[in-house]
Amino acid sequence: MRFVAPHPIPYQGSKRLLAPAILSFIPKDRFSRLIEPFAGSAAISLAAAQKKLFGEYLISDLLKPLTEIWQEILKHPDELSETYRALWHSQSKNNATKRFNEIRAQFNEDQDPAKLLFLLARCVKNAVRFSTTGQFNQSPDRRRQGMHPDTMDEEIHAAHRLLQSNCQVLCGDFREVLNMAKCKDLIYMDPPYQGTSEGRDRRYIREVQRAEMIELLEDLNSRGIEYILSYDGHCGTKSYGEALPAHLNAHRVLLEVGRSSQATLNGRDDVTVESVYLSPGLFGCATPAEVPLKAFNPQIALFS
User: Residues 9-60: pLDDT tens digits?
Assistant: First the structure.
């Protein structure tokens, strides 16, 4: 039995390491479906499915090739794994950068999901970047060749086993997904942090404006829909977004992610801290338990 949830889509910003802490706030036997409208690597859905916390899952994302990766994982895991294997073996030490650039150019033309999976596994820091015209423009990581095909095959099939029978995948605007939510659903949201979808090299296709998020949370509160939101944080003295306003009655918890790898490279010892907001009906329903110290640090936990 695997003790760590599968992670077939390597994605910078994935909540895989924070998943035990985030899931600890979910009361047992209260919700029937988990909705993840900014799915990305769907780390929370995978971790929740491993613990059998929900009967159904709905994952959605605005990036169509990414949702098509998930469709392939659920319906055609063998084909996706073999296509990834062929792409991985098509590179060599002598032509790795050239081959990456070729596959990147092909993906920008055909939007093939297997090619996106290869690019995500092979690019610098597993960090997707888009040009102002929506073209994938991240560079290859010259220190490694990406996830080995054997490992990728294991991750794909482990995710397939967890979600094949009870997961729906959608591509579209997150607002449409939120409108589908019902009282027995729990929503986990990990939208782009403020400022990460602007400029020449955007991390996300579309940014979610703070005012827009506040309005959506007000609507969820009025409908009695419970949610967990990862939204802002800080690393050292650098902040990522402004805290949400008090009138939402969302309770803020600070989770320590660990030392920043970029700061370490620059000779600093900065620690990354992320905010998680619990909807009014969730606060006090569950207590963090069996959470690794590195993921949930009581020294910096703050409820407001």
Answer: 988 778 888 899 899 999 888 999 999 999 999 999 999 999 999 999 999 9
Q: Are 228 and 279 in contact (CB under 8 A)?
A: yes
Mean pLDDT of the 239-248 span = 80
Q: What is the pLDDT of residue 132?
A: 78
- CA atoms of 301 and 277, how far apart (whole Å): 12
The distance from CA 160 to its chain's CA centroid, rounded to whole angstroms, is 17
Q: Do 60 and 169 contact (CB within 8 A), yes or no?
A: yes
Please give the C-alpha separations between residue 15 and each of 56, 223, 256, in angstroms, as whole numbers.
20, 27, 12
Q: What share of the chain is helix, strand, coil (3-state, %, to 5)?
A: 35, 20, 45
- Assigned CATH for 73-151: 1.10.1020.10
**Residue 45: half-sphere exposure toward Cβ, Cα within 13 Å:** 33
CA 108 to chain centre: 22
| Rounded Cα–Cα distance for residues 188 and 90 (Å) | 38
Question: Running DSSP on this structure, what letter comes out for residue 185?
Answer: E
pLDDT for residue 227: 96
Q: How many percent of the chain have pLDDT more than 90?
A: 58
Q: What does the longest C-alpha to C-alpha distance in the chain come to? A: 59
How far CA 134 is from CA of 140, 171, 198, 219, in Å, comes to 18, 16, 12, 30
Which secondary-structure segment (H or E) carries 264? helix 261-265
Q: Which amino acid is at 34?
A: L
Cβ–Cβ < 8 Å for 223, 215? no
Q: Using alpha carbons, select from 81, 120, 127, 85 the residue that is nearest to residue 104.
A: 120
| Cβ atoms 155, 7 nearer than 8 A | yes
